[in-house]
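Figure 6 in text form: structure in, sequence out.
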């Protein structure tokens, strides 16, 4: 009988431990969804510049620019890399190539998602 109660105690302890890990994971997951991690610009070569207007309100959240022949997504400031992509600029339509050459702003996360979904292979 003692073995039975000891087994139940261990079972409940493991259940509580699992529940604790799960709740900790969910809190971290929700926190990261609200404030996703950003990539820093570590691999920009010297002399490479990306311009962005100081009037942030009239532009979007993201800036698309060409870097090393591929589209790179920058944050609104035009310096911080949000998402490097493997989308070659040469495969895009000519008008879109010109827009990206000048710096194409996307206003929302949904616009960015749609662009990446449409043009990534």
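Output sequence:
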């Amino acid at each position: 009988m003692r073995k039975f109660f000891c087994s139940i105690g261990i079972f409940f302890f493991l259940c509580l431990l699992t529940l604790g890990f799960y709740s900790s994971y969910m809190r971290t997951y929700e926190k990261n969804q609200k404030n996703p991690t950003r990539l820093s610009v570590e691999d920009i070569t010297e002399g490479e510049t990306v311009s962005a207007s100081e009037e942030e309100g009239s532009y979007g959240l993201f800036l698309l620019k060409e870097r090393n022949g591929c589209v790179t997504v920058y944050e609104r400031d035009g310096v911080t890399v949000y998402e490097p992509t493997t989308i070659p600029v040469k495969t895009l339509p000519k008008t879109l190539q010109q827009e990206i050459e000048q710096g194409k702003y996307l206003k929302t996360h949904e616009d960015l998602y749609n662009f990446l979904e449409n043009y990534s292979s």
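Caption detail: Strands lie at 62-67, 70-75, 81-88, 104-106.
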